[in-house]
Amino acid sequence: MRLALVDNGSLEPAAHEALRSAAAAIGALAGVDVEAVSWRHSDRIAPSRLGGAPASTLGPWVRGHLAAGESQFVIVPYFISAGGAIGSRLRADMEALCASAGRFEWSLSEGLDEEGVLEGIVSDLVRERAAGLDRPAVIVVDHGGPSRASARIRDRVARGARSALGSEVGPVAAASMEAPPGDGFGFCRPLFSEALRSPGFSGGDVVVAPLFLSPGRHAGPGGDLAREARAAQAPPSRLRCHFTRLVGEHPAAAGFLAGALQRALAAATAP
Fold first, then answer.
1. CATH number of the CATH domain containing 91
2. N or C: which end of the chain has fewer CB within 10 A?
3. Are residues 123 and 153 in the same domain?
4. Predicted model pTM
5. Dist CA 23 CA 42 (whole Å)
6. Whole-angstrom Cα distance, residue 79 to residue 81?
7. In this predicted model, what pLDDT tens digit does every residue of 142-178 receive, in sequence order?
8. Are residues 24 and 56 in the same domain?
């Protein structure tokens, strides 16, 4: 049986390095060997930028192990919404592989979108970043996309943080970094750039809690969210944005996923 921690994939070496670190942490907690595998993209990173070890992507990884005689796989989803658009496409890809490469057994463990998990992590991260600030406003921001399921998670996390933090913070809002083109995606609004111009969030201290697991093109010091925050803080603005650590940097993320993996393994090996 092969076990993989699977993220969406990125062309940024830092994102895949973070995936490898998370896979090692989850494997250590669960007492098993967990491989770091990206759904797409990451195999285009030059191995020299990853310490000489090339990144694996899901299709070739599964086919390689099938060729070696493996027939059972457990996947741990390393993205915010296991039931969102990425999770749905990953499931479709695995079913397509079953059809084209021969039948094999596979399962997907629970993800971080289980109720209460992200709420606790984000509340901790906001409390940590808000230390020393006077009741800052808070924006919980996700990537944004075509899935209402992901938007519901973002909104649920913002409500949970508001409830958990109470008078420690000011107003709490949910926002998305971007929305797909066209009509019908109002659930992504407000966009992060819009939230930073809205009453209660456009001046003073604002703690930004990105619903991202790893640094890359969007999250982290050089990402799109930081760039948008810098633009919003340009004079004469009195806005001061304070970013929390990313969700994947909180130990509870690895702890929950290790437990989810153990439950998936118990189910897969049950008589």
1. 3.40.50.1400
2. C
3. yes
4. 0.94
5. 15
6. 6
7. 999 888 989 999 999 999 999 999 999 999 999 999 9
8. yes
